[in-house]
Queue: 3 jobs
Job 1
Amino acid sequence: MTINRRKFLSGTAGLAAGGLLAGTLGTRHALAQATASMFTPEDGATLRLLRWVPFVTGEEEAWNANTAAFTEATGVEVRIDQESWEDVRPKAAVAANVGSGPDMVMSWFDDPFQYPDKLVDVTDLANALGEEHGGWYEGLEGYARQGDKFIAIPLCAIGNAVCYRDSHMKAAGFSEFPQDTAGFLELCKAMKANGTPAGFPHGKAVGDGNNYAHWLLWSHGGMTVDENGAVAINSPETKAAIDYAKALYETFIPGTESWLDINNNRAFLAGEVSLTANGVSLYYAATKDEALKEIAEDIRTTNLPIGPVGKSVELHQTSTLSIFNHCKYPQAAKAYLAFMYQADRMNAWLEGASAYCCQALKGFENNPVWTSNPVHAPYAKASASLRPNGYAGPLGPASAGVMADYVLVDMFAEAVTGQRTPEEAIANAERRIARYYR
């Protein structure tokens, strides 16, 4: 296969110039040219990407269109394999450890820290992209960087926000959505009494389950480990979080202990629940179905309430892109990622995602998608506001293991369902966390 490198370089440089802000056009145009020219795909290169199943059709369409443009420009075919959110993590871990399978993975949270020695060093690309596009958001950068080395490229934060039926909230006696956890509990009680209950996942949902469990803990001042990595889950704050979770669980629709990432969407759109937390995909699923028009027009979004800790503390789903060491064409893989982050390509993807994916690079924060619809507002700052799941300790193999093992999700599920007492659930979580933080 002959690579038309001149066509590739001129195409990516021109694309990068298209979406840049006035006053920085010349500098960033030059930077884009430099980034594009850093990587020349190997002769005969082909690539395979493992990614999570999309929840927003436009996101997938934009990603695939950008991929097709890369293939047209370089001749490098890229195969994209989709797996459920829950299955990406184990399949990526197997590929990393056996040294075969997909060349790249679109993974979750701090998963790259589970097998950092199995990943290609992408520091050169990450630094170039950061310089070209205004720098990385600190939280997202932390999910991809180990010391001075990037083991992945930050992709996005999938914003999490409360989605609720405005008319049902008002029918329950609330003119405005409560901003604190005490008022939120009273709202959920009133909505249940009105036959329009809430529902949050207590099952092993990679996104929604972890987002909810971490918010419960953090909003009450709890943490898995302290700044030094010492296990700190056994605390009065954790007990308070569990007591609050038990009270909320009593207002939920039955069965949330088995919910995965798709279940709260389905329950909300079926009219079984009137309040949950989700990405903006829930809203757009409703807008695309004429039968759900009434629900779509009634949906409002807001950030999760503030608890006793006194400030907003939320976990947002994060995704990174990694290249496995067993990839036969690492330069082609880097060229592919460089292409996908060029301004016109990234802006098109963000717009196609309709506020589902929040940018990892600050240079894209003014994308018009964030102001195009009031429903998008709570999702707009997800990348800037997210708290890493390893809080208050550093990210690394230990935090990645605790997350992958659903320790927090299980702790709350055990307690709210009565499988264990709150004290037993905390002690079990403490033992499990200690296995990783040795």
Job 2
Amino acid sequence: MNWHRPKTADDTLLSPAHKVSFSDSSKSSEKRNSARPSSRPSSSSNSRPDSPAGQQRKGASQQRTTSQKREQPFVGGVRNLQRINRQSEALWESSLVSPTAPQPKPFLIYHDSFLSVLGPNPTLQCLIEDNRAPFFHEAGVFHPPTNTLFVTSNQIEDPSPDAVTTRNKTIVITKIEFFSPTDFTRDKVRCPERNYMANGGTNYRDGIILCAQGSLREPSGLIYMEAKRPHKTTTLLNNYHSRPFNSPNDVIVHSDGSIWFTDPIYGYEQGFRPKPQLPQLVYRFDPSTGDIRVVADGFGRPNGLCFSPDENTIYITDTDLIHGDGTTDYRRAATVYAYSVLWEHDCPYLTNRRVFAYADTGAPDGIKCDVFGNVYAGCGDGINVWNSGGMLIGKVQIEGGCANFCFGRNGEMWVFGEHKLWRVKLGDESRGALLGV
């Protein structure tokens, strides 16, 4: 979910009457160098031209499709780092720029350990800007075998008769196939109509799982979609012992094959789901046995979730600060909770719930870990990064903030800013724990 735009997702894009369309491709090219920095800042680098995620911009203008891209000033290099002094009275000095104010330096350093995350030359680029609709909102699933990124949009007006059960809203699934960091094709996924209002997603087997929030008529649940055309889909789960889910929001997969997901009531608040018949819970589903169980409760709006690299900890965000109608209540949670994962009788239980972090701007939505255990979350000012102890070590400021993001290869991240798709390049070793690539 997003702090300034209510979060939802949909599949009515499959309707022939749906009018949203893309051009066949949006390609841009530029001369780039690639580097593989160590985990510490260094001036040396090794050329890796075959690694798209490791390439860095060298100069020259980009060719952009008029409707999808416009020239963006290149942002990168150590000159774009800013240290935030949190000692003594420094934060109150009038000469200090507020970390939440728009700044030309996107990388904010709250602790020196963030330097090894950034690498010697971090960069931020706007790859696509499309003002027609908020195409870049949630899911964010990178599929390494095809070098493809899948993204779900925010809600888009859809006047077609097929969208009546979603209150004339739809959500588009965008597929971006990369040939280099800035050379790619962009297309709309056309998958069966059962995938109503798709939202969060994750890698699963040879394809991806999407959270189908459902509609006033269609049930919500989990959908498996093949990564390759024709993107066939299969319903994995659409009820809790015959009781309908609210509107599943985000999903992850444990190494034992079990699927964990959150289920807030945003769909009901936004008018495309019936009155809830379940609390707002976190679930674990085992496809091999069919076992579906509640693993956590007590949330205002459970949202993003991820495991630590060793899977001994799970992080779950609560975005109760923002309700589905877009209203905010600053007395409510904008919190990342951590739980210890305890195994008994060959089943996992969540214990030792504690506050891991509280977002200072907006609410933490999508959440990921890197291979070192650092925790990243999309917040009202961009990507916030905490170490495994819950200390804020840095931020990647994104204009307008972001709801979600995902890692690619070798320190590459794609960040979703509604009408904009951003590419962030960190140090090569700052890889996502989910894929480890």
Job 3
Amino acid sequence: MKEEGSSEGIEAEGLFLFTWERQCIRALDKSLTLLIRSGRILMESGAEIYRVEETIVRLGKALHLKEVQSYCTPTGLFIGYTHDEEPRTAVRRVFKRAINLRRISEVNDLARQFSQGKMSVESALLQLENIEKQKEPYPWYWQIFCISLVAAILALLNGGKGLEFAVALLVSGLLRFFMFKSKFFMNTPFLREFALGAFGMVLVLLTKTMLDVQMVPIMIGLLLSAFPGAYMVNSVRDIVAGDLLAGAIRGLEATGLTVALFGGAGMVLATLGNGYIEEVTTKASHGFAMEMLFGFMIAAFFSMALNTPHNTVLASGLAGLIGRSVLVLTILLGSTPIMGMFWGTLAVVILSEIMARYYKVPVTLFVIGGIIPLLPGLFFFQATYTLVQGDYVRLIEPFVQGAMGIISIGAAAAAITGLVRFWKTSR
């Protein structure tokens, strides 16, 4: 037998300690990789900042990391924890930002299963890799068709008829196909929205020279189908969750994208289109049943364009149907469109909260599509039209109406989100 304290025993003990330390370091590296990758995927997919932070903290606690903290901005991840009584920090930049509802839903489900002890770190990392690599639920050409159909239906809702529907569908399809193939525009925020507005107006003007169509419904459909509604929803939800900086940044980003979108259309309109455009009106000629159907179709197809999971498509459409129905009923009862947007959004968010718990997915999967049929696109286009004509007095009314519409939508979303968060924390 070897004597205790012999050189061979000391070497064996040292080798064991070295191997144990390396295993601990590897386990810590895997844990940190899991936190960073899950947070990065969520942020690149357009999740709310508070959701990213809560997911990282939940995973960190499940990994038994000490004093896990997470602070995120729309462009960066900051993760803090304690190891061997020493505070450590991991920082990662986030460069890509888009909206992908499928990835948000799957990472949310992974975090829930992992926190319940249903999978190992290795399995979670492998699943995250699969989430990034697997094909989207809808091919690119179907997404282009979906967003083009949304533009066409929105043209109908804003006074268009069959010809305007067909032109909006065709023009939006051509425009989206060009943007999809042009990586320069697709990967450059603000320039992308400016190009969508400008090129869209050019195509509509060219169509106007050949066909007797109403330009206004077509352009409203094109612009609203590109409206950054997801950023607006995330801004409100982040502010309610207490992430004031992230919420303010997201709100500023949504405002900038909207200005770029309508600004691109306005510049082309001011340069080429004053002789072609007709007076902007609020006339609509659809029955209540058709309004409900349009609301359903807009929300469902818009959600599919953002890669929502297959099993949530009908629920997303239901949110749009309810929201549009409440808006129309409010107006029929003699109230203003602004109040209709408020009550419609209230109904959409309440229903979305219920469906999110039923399907066990993030509530944004239903809210984003549900508010699109409620957006005040006509007011903003009226403001753009009067601005390019230099009629600054008439500019004030539609601009204030559009701004109040957005504020009413945000206020309704904030009210329900705040009540739900209070209920969850009080439990």
